[in-house]
Recover the amino acids of this structure.
């Protein structure tokens, strides 16, 4: 594989590129294999193991993006509704994120790598949830 994204120091593998790798080359697969190997090698002695993966965080992409049909996933009755007694802080934060469109051009002021999720719509929310479920499957 060759890095696909420009960087001042050269090139690097973008999130989009990494997310489209086959399962056997995916970062989560490698981390899982390394953790399993460590456990096997150290099974006879006490140890602490911390294994962390990018998933399930934005851009919510994995080899299992198509595992769940977005239309089949439930959307709770409280979708786009504020709970009784919510604080102003929580309302402002929720308004910000619900008006956000993750993907496309920018996210948090940087170019986004993943698919477009219009979180103001039920369809966009369903698609993001479908991808999230794929990340944790």
């Amino acid at each position: 594989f060759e890095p696909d994204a420009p960087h001042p120091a050269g090139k690097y593998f973008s999130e989009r590129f990494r997310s489209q790798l086959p399962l056997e080359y995916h970062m989560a697969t490698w981390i899982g294999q390394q953790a399993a190997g460590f456990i096997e090698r150290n099974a006879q002695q006490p140890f602490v193991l911390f294994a962390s993966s990018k998933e399930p965080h934005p851009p919510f992409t994995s080899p299992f993006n198509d595992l769940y049909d977005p239309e089949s996933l439930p959307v709770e009755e409280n979708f786009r509704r504020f709970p009784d007694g919510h604080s102003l802080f929580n309302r402002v934060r929720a308004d910000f994120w619900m008006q956000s469109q993750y993907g496309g051009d920018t996210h948090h002021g940087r170019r986004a790598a993943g698919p477009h999720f219009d979180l103001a719509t039920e369809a966009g929310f369903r698609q993001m949830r479908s991808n999230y479920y794929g990340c944790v499957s």
Summary: Residues 48 and 85 are 42 Å apart (CA to CA). The first strand starts at residue 5 and ends at 7. Residues 104-113 have pLDDT under 50 and may be disordered. The chain has one domain: 5-136.
